[in-house]
Amino acid sequence: MKTHYEVLGCHRNATYEELKRRYQELVLKYHPDKQENLLPATFLEIDTAWKILRDPEQRKLYDDQLTHTQLSEQPLIFATLSLSDLYRHEETLNYSYMCRCGGLYSIAQMEVGLEDCFVHCEGCSLIIHIKCDNEK
Ligand SMILES: [Zn+2]
Questions:
Q1: Domains of the chain listed by start with CATH number
Q2: How far is ligand 1, taken at its centre, from the CA of residue 83, in Å?
Q3: Residue 59 gets which letter from DSSP?
Q4: Ligand 1 geometric centre to CA of 64 (Å)
Q5: Whose CA is closest to 96, among 78, 115, 83, 79?
Q6: pLDDT in tens, 85-103
Q7: Model pTM above 0.70
Q8: Which residues form the J domain (predicted)?
Q9: What's the 3 CA to ligand 1 centre distance in angstroms?
Q10: Exposed/middle/buried for residue 50 (C-beta within 10 Å: 0-12, 13-18, 19+)
């Protein structure tokens, strides 16, 4: 899904004036009265984007939300490892790896090996990427 900034074709830190100018350009170009072949959704998107971004409070809320979403979509990867880099617990047959925060990444054996997986640290927001081992 496009962000409101993408809809308006503006950078995230665009000023109010830039957003406004861009909105006006787009409205002229995409207004449903003027462009028969345009999907109404586009105009709606542009309009919605502008209504939120023109209001400093709403924009701030939206920015916070966006930051949050982007963080959860693109977590920080602490390390990319293969299974053999992990510590294997002989008793439980689970794997673990120590994070830089002192927390652990722990993975049950059945969760790894078939395809790449991502594991969250127990102590912070970092993740590790475990590459699939094809040595079976
Ligand atoms: Zn951690």
A1: 4-73 (1.10.287.110), 76-131 (3.10.660.10)
A2: 18
A3: H
A4: 23
A5: 83
A6: 999 998 988 999 999 999 9
A7: no
A8: 3-66
A9: 30
A10: buried
